[in-house]
Amino acid sequence: MLDHFARFLEQPQRVLLTTHENPDGDGIGAMIGLAHYLRHLGKDVRIVISPELPPFLHFLDTEQWVETFDSERHGNLGQWPEAWVLVDASEPQRLGAMHEVFQASQAVKVCLDHHMKAAPQGFDQEFTDSTASASAELVFELVAKRMPRPLPRPMATALYAGLVDDTGNFRFSNATSKVHRMAAELIEEGVLPARVYQDLYHQGRPERLKLFGCAFEGLELHGEGRFACLSLSQANLHACGAIHDDMEGLVNKPLELKGVEVACLLHELDDGRIKASLRSRELVDVNAICRYFGGGGHRLASGAKLNGPMEKAKAELKEVVLAQLEKDLSHLE
Ligand SMILES: [Mn+2]
Question: Where are the domains of the chain?
Answer without folding.
Answer: 2-201, 206-332
